[in-house]
Amino acid sequence: MALIIGFLCLLSKGFEYRISYVDAFSVAGGAVFFIGLLQAVSFYGAFEIFGFSASSFGRKERKYKDYASYLEQKSAKRKDSKLTYMPFIAVGVVFFIIGIILKACLL
Prior knowledge:
Elements: H1 2-13, H2 18-43, H3 48-55, H4 67-80, H5 86-106
């Protein structure tokens, strides 16, 4: 994903200027990093209310008794799952650092 974002940024600015590579790596790194942060916030339950309301929308009988029981089941599920957002954050940081290094080399 970061490579695609970086390539699109290079296409828009052109391949002949070295500063375009700095922009490409920085924008791609920032975008992937913030996607990872959004996944981390979601993983820790910031958007649980939307899932709860969607689970009971359009049904006569609710799947969960109340919001507290929904949160208990989600937190039990979360204990078993892995940190799937970490690769996004790591790749984003690496791309952003590459952008900073390229910028330092241009000075």
